[in-house]
Write a structure and sequence with these properties.
Blueprint lengths: L1 H12 L9 E5 L4 H13 L3 E4 L8 E4 L1 H13 L4 E5 L2 H7 L25 H14 L3 E8 L5 E7 L8 E6 L7 H15 L6 H4 L2 E5 L4 H9 L53 H10 L8 E7 L3 E4 L12 H19 L4 E4 H4 L6 H9 L3 E7 L14 H24 L1
Parallel strand pairs: 7-8, 7-9, 9-12, 10-11
Antiparallel strand pairs: 1-3, 1-4, 2-3, 5-6, 6-8, 10-12
Length: 415
């Protein structure tokens, strides 16, 4: 009699979702048939696919202890091989838990932010505010509030002045991908604080950066559920499921492929395009930029990929496919030179067709010349729960790739 009440007590005391007994299974290389079968499973169940099923690739599936037997039996019965990639998800979360950063700012530093650990939303915002406060060419632009009322702030770096080509950087649209805002802020710090090493990068280009495109989800991943992906909006799910996949919510070939209409699923695209206020805020802001940004760049994890558009369907390519693809290849080559990390430069749909993503919208609707999504480290050993000692090396290698992109953009503007 005592046990259920003790369990209830344990749940109420801990506001953090526990992943005790959860493992991540990795399938063998999938063919078209097995990939299609798994995509059906993904649509019909609430299994969390850390890596989506695609032909010629493996899929990663997080499975609870309760589901393990039925999932492994199903895989075996369909001839899909698998092994355990993450033995204990909760242990991984515990091992990578950030230290408590409150009051960590030393008197010599203007901000708490560093790249030795992950940081919460307030720290990300304090960091960009500090850069704006200490550089007369930078400012904070408030682009609206999130569903739960959090301020969405963009760092504008406008040293190049009106009319100069601009770059838009978006990080953290998927809440649990903590390495994304960490690496994006690493790059922005390099741009601003190490200006003297590469003055042209700010003298000739304007930059606009949002450190967390999904602030409610990010806060929730810190406070309640480390593996939360979506926004936190309420669309009337009878099961109480919250949120929309914000990277399936953009109005470019919306809901055509790779989405779910089940409100409880990770890839739920929402009731309509731009149902999510955060995505509307970003849309409305980037549409004010003159000229249209030459690049829209989105930071995600994981898989070590440099993705180029379009992602909504196989063989759907932009008119300047050759230059976009070549730049992804060249950037990945430069990235590799730093720490030997291999990034695969591929078309987004070759990974798996998925419509309504922001990078597709930047290219196809907004009209950026280039649009990329980088899937940062790793290839699955830690997945979304990447140890903090990989933040700086991830930033260093991404900076090398980014320098190739920046230099190419400056060349093109001179042509």
């Amino acid at each position: 009699i005592l046990l259920p009440s003790l369990l209830a007590l344990a749940v109420s005391v801990s506001s953090q979702k526990s992943y005790d007994g959860y493992k991540v299974l990795r399938t063998g290389m999938l063919d078209q048939t097995s990939a299609d079968l798994l995509r059906e499973v993904q649509t019909e169940t609430n299994l969390d696919f850390w890596k989506e099923p695609a032909p010629g690739r493996s899929a990663d599936i997080m499975t609870s202890a309760e589901e393990m037997e039925s999932v492994t039996a199903w895989l075996t019965s369909h001839g899909i091989t698998f092994h355990t990639m993450v033995e204990d998800v909760q242990q991984l979360i515990q091992e990578t838990k950030p230290r408590n950063n409150t009051g960590m700012r030393s008197s010599s530093k203007r901000y708490t932010m560093d790249w030795a650990d992950y940081h919460d939303l307030d720290t990300l915002n304090e960091f960009i505010t500090s850069l704006a406060d200490t550089n007369d060419f930078a400012s904070i632009i408030n682009i609206g509030q999130s569903y739960e009322g959090r301020e969405m702030n963009v760092l504008a770096i406008e040293k190049a002045g009106p009319g100069a080509p601009s770059i838009w950087l978006e990080a953290g649209i998927h809440a649990r991908e903590w390495i994304a805002p960490a690496v994006a802020t690493f790059l922005v710090r390099e741009l601003v604080e190490d200006y003297a090493e590469h003055p042209d990068y700010l003298d000739k280009l304007n930059w606009y950066f949002i450190p967390s495109a999904n602030p409610d989800g990010y806060a929730y991943s810190w406070e309640h559920d480390r593996l939360w992906r979506k926004t936190r909006s309420d669309h009337g799910s009878i099961l109480g499921c919250k949120g929309v996949d914000p990277n399936r919510n953009w109005d470019f070939h919306y809901a055509e492929t790779g989405v779910s209409h089940n409100k409880c699923q990770e890839t739920y695209c929402g009731p309509e395009a731009f149902s999510e206020v955060e995505m509307r805020n970003i849309r409305d802001f980037v549409q004010t930029l003159e000229p249209v940004p030459v690049l829209g760049h989105c930071f995600h994890s994981y898989s070590q990929l440099w993705l180029w558009p379009y992602g909504y369907a196989y063989n759907a390519f932009p008119e300047n496919k050759a230059e976009v693809q070549q730049l992804a290849i060249d950037a990945s080559d430069a990235l590799y030179q730093v720490h030997g990390t291999v990034f695969d430069p591929i078309n987004s749909a070759d990974l798996y067709p998925a419509a309504g993503a922001s990078d597709d919208w930047y290219k196809g609707a907004l009209g950026t010349r280039f649009s990329f999504t980088t899937e940062l480290r790793d290839t699955g050993k830690h997945g979304f729960v990447l140890p903090k000692d990989q933040i700086i090396p991830s930033g260093e290698e991404m900076w090398a790739g980014f320098e190739v992109v920046i230099n190419r953009l400056m060349e093109l503007e001179l042509e």
